[in-house]
UniProtKB/TrEMBL annotation:
One of its GO terms (molecular function) is DNA-binding transcription factor activity. Keywords: DNA-binding, Transcription, Transcription regulation. Residues 22-81 form the HTH tetR-type domain. Transmembrane segments: none annotated. Residues 1-20 are annotated as: Disordered. Gene3D superfamilies: Tetracycline Repressor, domain 2. The keyword NAD does not apply. The lineage of its organism: Bacteria, Bacillati, Actinomycetota, Thermoleophilia, Solirubrobacterales. Residues 44-63 bind DNA. This is Transcriptional regulator, TetR family. Pfam families: TetR_C_43, TetR_N.
Amino acid sequence: MSTPQSAPGPQPDAKPLRADAARNRLKVLDAARAAFSEHGPNAQMDDIARRAGVGVGTVYRHFPTKQALAQAMMEQRVERIVTFIQTEMLPDPDPWRALARSLEFCGTMQEQDRGYAEAVASVAGGTSVGGGMKEAGPALIEQMFALTAVFIERAHAKGVVRADLTAADMSPIYAGLSAVVLAGIPDWRRYVEILLDGLRPQPDR
């Protein structure tokens, strides 16, 4: 198993953003998530600037293209997932509880951010990250998968999940949840319970 890697940091000669510039960047990312959730790829930079309360020039200074903005949004999402695994899942002495919390966390993110839900749905039918999730970059994706593998290994050691569950299975599982969320089913947490029932240890047949 590969050792989890740290998220890529700035290059040594990169200058940190001023506090006001950093705040504006976060405002733009928040506004972009709302705009992309509402309009998809047809979201416009001037609309994003209006939602963020900044000039359109500020948007372009941080993100010269819509592609750069989409990449930054996905990086931020995956960084949030990595942080959740590191700070909430791995330290939890009860891996079954942590697994249930991860599905709740993922479903809530998808409910609040349609763009993220669509990116997760892109892996349906496979076991690798595809579509929009690739925008986060290979280093972050590798780190997320490595941490997931560590967690699944711990869950097996505790005997709380079915014997054939692998880290690679988690992507299509989360993709299945995203399909429920994207369908607008209000009680998506019921499907979390159904998923969890399928992940429990299976009696010998």
